[in-house]
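Bumping with the actual sequence this time:
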Amino acid sequence: MSGKYESRHKINDFDTDFIKQALAKTYPALLKKAGYEIGLVGKFGIGSKNISDTLFNYCAAERSGQPVYELKNSSGKIVHYTDSVGKDIHRF
């Protein structure tokens, strides 16, 4: 996200969010500012407050840590998380 080592951004767990100033310098924020459509699919891995519609134009990310790997789709069929992520990427 930032291109920086942990020793620079000081985030060494999955619960800590980027501070506002650091978030503004991440790749998604810079690309969105340059006019790109930005999407997040899968796991975010850096806190949960930063997962927002203001940073991403499309968001299909697990917001509560580790995802459930066996999901039920709308017809009740068991779908693996990887397949679900693939469909979200295609949708974006």
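The tokens above came from a reply further down the thread. The mean pLDDT is 84.
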